[in-house]
Design brief:
Layout: E1 12-17, H1 22-33, E2 37-43, H2 56-67, E3 74-77, H3 98-119, E4 129-134, H4 150-173, E5 177-183, H5 204-217, E6 225-228
Parallel strand pairs: 1-2, 1-3, 3-4, 4-5, 5-6
Helix pairs in contact: 1-5, 2-3, 3-4
Bound molecules: NADP nicotinamide-adenine-dinucleotide phosphate.
The site of NADP nicotinamide-adenine-dinucleotide phosphate has 27 residues, from α1.
């Protein structure tokens, strides 16, 4: 499977954060196979340097590694977690646990905010550039019809707000920058193993290829896009 990105110039540079995950690996594989992509750098907890969402110096170290090679056109944040420290999503209000809420915010919202803080400045200035973060449809407040999953939902909703604020601020000085919160569909991965039928879930390469196609076509509007793997807008 391949997915060529056409909206960036030849020899564009890409970075994938969370490159050890199912979707992260798929993005790295697809970008490495794209003849227009000059380099794709991947960072995760087991890379050198390593990237830990709870540790800003580790994020700075990875950003410095990227900066030494020049500006980048595409940054994909494919990090995120549903089960954290052995605690899965809450079914009921009485299951809410303060520590789980804090940890979900730390991993799914604060960590990605720090990724934007340190990687957005590395993106090309006068050309199209894209920062995309893997969010989730369940982070939509309007689309929440089932309730539950308090900390995961709330942390993805917070992530969406952080992306939107970044998009609005960055647009003032860099009108060609595009920001996206992505819903990848239900994809086979460690994250979904205990929660979704893996046989009917999408293959990570399939989802990542569709998401790259979507990213390739998103316009710079001054606001972030919240979209799924078919390019359909999701209400915030
Ligand atoms: N799969 C789906 O159906 C689905 C649906 C909706 C949204 N999403 C979102 O898509 C993203 C990727 O999910 P996936 O399915 O590819 O999951 P995955 O295979 O579990 O990958 C998650 C990635 O996040 C990294 N990560 C988790 N906690 C971290 C931390 N504290 N510090 C640094 N890295 C950390 C993991 O690193 P390690 O390898 O070191 O653990 C891994 O690289 C997530 O944000 C998820 O919420 C997925």
């Amino acid at each position: 499977m391949s997915q060529a990105i056409t909206a960036f110039p030849h020899n564009f540079r890409a970075v994938v954060l969370g490159s050890s995950g199912a979707l992260g690996q798929a993005f790295v594989q697809l970008l490495a196979a794209d003849p227009r992509c000059a380099s794709v750098m991947g960072f995760c907890r087991s890379s050198a340097p390593a990237l830990f969402l709870e540790d800003e110096p580790s994020i700075i170290h990875c950003a410095q590694e990227v900066a030494s090679g020049g500006a980048v056109h595409l940054v994909i944040d494919a990090t995120g977690a549903l089960v954290i420290d052995g605690r899965g999503p809450e079914k009921r209000l009485e299951d809410i646990n303060a520590e789980s809420l804090v940890r979900a915010m730390q991993v799914n919202a604060i960590g990605p905010a720090l990724l934007m803080k340190h990687f957005v400045p590395l993106m090309v200035r006068d050309q199209r550039c894209v920062f995309a973060s893997l969010s989730a449809r369940v982070g939509s407040i309007e689309d929440n019809h089932k309730g539950g999953w308090y900390s995961y939902r709330a942390s993805k909703a917070a992530l969406n707000m952080l992306i939107q604020s970044t998009a609005i601020e960055v647009h003032r000085k860099r009108p060609l920058a595009v920001f996206a919160a992505l819903q990848p569909g239900t994809v086979q991965s460690r994250l979904t193993q205990a929660f979704a039928d893996q046989a009917s879930a999408m293959a990570p390469l399939d989802s990542a290829a569709r998401l790259l196609q979507v990213l390739d076509s998103l316009p710079s509007t001054g606001r972030a896009h919240f979209v799924d793997y078919e390019g359909r807008a999701i209400p915030w």
